From TrEMBL:
Name of this protein: RNA signal recognition particle
Any Pfam family hit: DUF1428
SUPFAM superfamilies tied to this protein: Dimeric alpha+beta barrel
InterPro entries recorded: Dimeric_a/b-barrel, DUF1428
Species the sequence originates in: Methylobacterium gnaphalii
Top-level lineage group: Bacteria
Amino acid sequence: MPYVDGFVIPVPKAKVEAYKELARKARDVWMEYGALSFVECLGDDVPYGELTSFPRAVQLKEDEIVGFSWIVYESRESRDAVNARVMADPRMQPGPDMPFDGKRMIFGGFVPFLED
């Protein structure tokens, strides 16, 4: 059964191009190690909700945009193996110029139950 990792992050508008560059590099690494799909999105119509919303979830600041992404794997076991290899890869070690605030990233693993 497929498995999905999902992410929501705040990206400074001034660092969008650096974020896109990092995302492309990350995609290449994840796909090399066995991910089936890697999708990156930047908010276009993401309203600030009264109680909950993507902006509230990541404590979005005025000079930031919401990033939303997901990675699909063959299974939970495959995901765990792929992520272990990715995290050990020198290309994926965090540097001093990360183009987003990782402390406000929301992430989790999900089991799909409906797909069309």
